[in-house]
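Lab meeting prep.
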Amino acid sequence: MWHIRLRGFFGHFLNTIKRALLTCWIAAAVVTVRAQTSTVDPTLPPEHGSAALGLNFMPDPFRGQRLIGGGDVDISRNAAGDSCAGFTSAAPDFRLTLVGDLPFLRLMFVADVVSADATLLVILPDGGRRCGDNAYGVLSPVIDFTNASAGDYLIWIGARGEEPVYGSLYATRRDDVYPNSTTVVVPPVRETEVPSGQATPTLIPGTYLDLETEPHYGAITLSGGFLPDPYWTFAQAGGSLDVPAYDLQADIEAITFGGEVGGGSLGAGGTGECAGFTTPEPTLTLDWSGRSTRLRVFFAAVASREANASLIIQAPDLSWWCNRDFAPGFSDPLIEFENPAAGRYTIWLANETERGAAVPGAIHITERRELTPDGITLEGSAPITAPLIGFSDGNFAADVLRDPLTVPFTAGGLIEAALNNPTSGCVGYYADAPALTLELTDSLPYLRAFVIAPDPAESDPTLIAAMPDGRWYCADDWGGTTLPMITVFGGTGTGLARFWVGSYHAEQQLGGTLVITEHGITPLDAF
């Protein structure tokens, strides 16, 4: 590229040696500055998408379509080796995530035009860098990995010439798949259309959003006119896989709330509605029947946490719907279907901004026009330091949780929580033995405990809970009453859960009922 420029200058200005030398000096200076200031940046979101591949991913080879290579970053300045050549962009073109170790992995890029000269740069999960150039007698670059480790492979497509290259990235576990093989056919020479601003939709990888797997929070069935309305269930938003924003643009018909349809955003980047980090498995599935003017699905995060979730739904007609924020100034997502079709709605929740972090809350399904996330408050109790209360098993144990589980108790005792734990915020007087001990064979994502008393105006009970995961919770008056309530979001752990009921006043014995539930009922529902 450099010599071509010099020949052009000298052929035009042979009679002016001084001007030619000056031009050469300027060209050299420009090239030097570009090489010194341009580097690849692994922290930037991939420009053309992401995918995750399992140990036995199908189809093999995996194909990531419509990648564009080229840019201002000199690959030779970013990695060492004879194959490290060409120019690329600062941001990765693609992120490929292996969910497990593979004995063999081959990455290759096949351009749409056989004469296009592309290269590859890959940053491995351990930070190492590998390059690929011409292979198997063609201009397509190939990189082979033996004992490929699980993790993120950040991929840059380079172009040796000044023009960008367009084509497809392939990943395979088979050594008989290579450019020009029967599985990967290099396209004939043809003109490639310059892509417009709208990304080209591609198929959704089966290893990404998997419609066939069991949803994390179960399958529900509702029909028009269902009661109670809203239906809600605990759920957590988040995961380690990027929402494949480009893929989700396929067949999107409308977004009821939010700004821009589609968008090509991955993780926290971009402005589109399809964004964030989720899991391959759905969060929830809804089988819908009957007639209704609307079906509204939204997520409300726990009020005590700063959270930003997004929502992805595949409708029965296989169209995709996405939303980040149901209205300006709010972070909870909402999607509404007018005259909803009967069939299955497959729902994913994503953490919009942070990979791997869970956002606890609840999915709500309603036919009511006035109900939105800003009208929902989910109260979660904050864990505290461990109170000094005994660990005896108490007077009751259950292997199976009836919902709601109600247990009579007599409250009060000699252990003063505030005296023994001055920084915990716990109050009341307790007995050594718990009022209830439960054996939790599964970690419950949501658990609520509260107390009801025959005469709340005359009694003032308090409550302490210790979850199997080691977290402790305290509660006193709730919702303008003298009755305590504890709500645990995000998993209880497995093992013994213990609950103590105390009296706010010393030497006072109280009677009543302790209620344990996985639903949203409160002490007010008992009256």
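Slide two material, second protein:
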Amino acid sequence: MGELDEVMVLVREGRDILRTRRPNERQRKWREWREQVKTVCEALDAAERPRLQLSFKAITQDITALDQWLIDNSGELDPPPPQTLPPQMPPPTSPEVGGVDTVAAEGDCVAPTNDGAAQQPGLRQRTRVFLSYRSTDEKIARAVKQELESLDDRIDVFAAYDDLRRGGRWKQQLMEELKAASWFILIYTDPEMDWQWPIYEATTFEALHAGQSGGDQRLCCLHDTDARPKPLSEYQANRISLFQREQGDDEEVTELKKERFYEESAIFRFLRDFIQYPTDAPLTTDIRRYEPRLVEAAHAISESFVKNRQDSVTHSTYYPARIEITFRPERLTDNGNGMIARGTSMALASVFLGPIAQAIFRLANTGDLPWEEFRRNLSDEAQGQSLLWLEQLEEALLLAADGRRPDPVMATFYSVSNRRFYRPLLTRQEYYLSGKRTFYVLLVEQPPADFSQHEEQGILLAGLILGSRFRFEFIDRRVEQLKGELDDEDFRILCANIKSQISAIESEAAQHGLLDPESLIQCFPRSDQETVSGWYERWGAVRQEIFGVLEDEDAAVARQPQVTAQLLDLLDDKLRAINVGFMRMGSQRYGELVQAAFKPKRGRVANGGGA
């Protein structure tokens, strides 16, 4: 295709644009056509360039006249006919005419506007907006871009999802866009998310435009939260709100109320200021003509914020008691797939207690409590006894924080405050971009054995069952093995079995609250409670000695005769005495409770006969 043919094709396309009925579509086609004209002009020779330039000017004037007619007559009359170009265009009289810059200047001076008012040459400005947002808020960004650009064809909104060149030097492009922008708009939603990059863009925009006259930097924040970024607190902010229809209102009343609501909204005020900027050459001076369109835009943008949150959780209700354990990011490391608390410890954790959990543990919580302080408070309550449930929970938390699957916590604990049993259930872990991790632990109430209506009998019965098994399956069996002849490997296995079996028995006892002194002590009359308390103290001391002797298995094997003698003394003498004392007194007390609970009713004989 020759140069003349290209010119004629473009002229025909320009005239076709005039026949487009929908204003928004016509404006879009006109902008695309204008860019084609600029590109073709660069390749034309001096003879053909004036034809295309004059055609361009005539057609854009026709579009301007058509827009003005639509505003003034609201489509009640036939539109004016387009100008007819002369068949031959004279060459330009000035040698400076020609080139793409001339066409661009012509277009900028006479390009159509939605309010039909073309700016005078020299006052014409385009409004460029840099839209900053997180990828999770792309729906809002699309709505804001669409609504702003539909206000006037002189508005260009840069949004990374649409305008960032693929595979290009994106950082350089962002810097260029920030420098060229006359507005910076930040879409701010969830304060819990990481906003470092949008704030970096905002501060860069601020630095690039710091020398503007009057400090007019046009930086603002559109948000739907109470909080907003502190670095931007001195700039204007517009809280997004959505109109709610009132029950009983008909359609007409609802529309009137909605229009009034958005006319008074922060987003409407922002849009009104936006189209009147800058004051020396605003996009429009006839703000009243724009108001209905601004109300529509305010509603569309507000609705986009709401739709963006449709899948967001507004609040959570936990019916069981719960605690929340948080690992802070200062000591977390990156394993390449995210932040992992590898090699961490509970010293880095803090705990938050829900209101029910505060009552269960008898702790008043004013915020995050360091885990070590939480553990210390529970240890004081337990009076030196082993907190097996807490040890198992710590192990599960550290495994999960290390990226591994944790084992369930099997041990339970007894709450003195409400005389109930609970088992910790690790249910969820939340990851944050900052590296923080929060674990949610529900405290699920457990019945004591199968005697939920008879707690004292249930605790004592569980204690007697475990006490009997402790005697015959552990003490007697291990003493018999220690008195036999063992080689080094058999002795090593025996030592490991002694420790693991004690832990297993403790785990089962903890599920019935037997490792909590108060739960068992209260089952006995006041005269025997001191004796029962002494059993707990003696058991704690003996247990500590056993694990101390077996702490280093290699040393225990090397000193087998001495270790055997120590273990026989601890198991066959001290533990057996504690076991015998509990089984005798516990059996007697259990019998008393059973007789009191299962007395026959008056008028019935012992064999169950009639009155």
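Talking points for slide two:
The radius of gyration is 41 Å.
Confidence is low (pLDDT under 50) at residues 74-79, 83-124, 337-343, 449-453.
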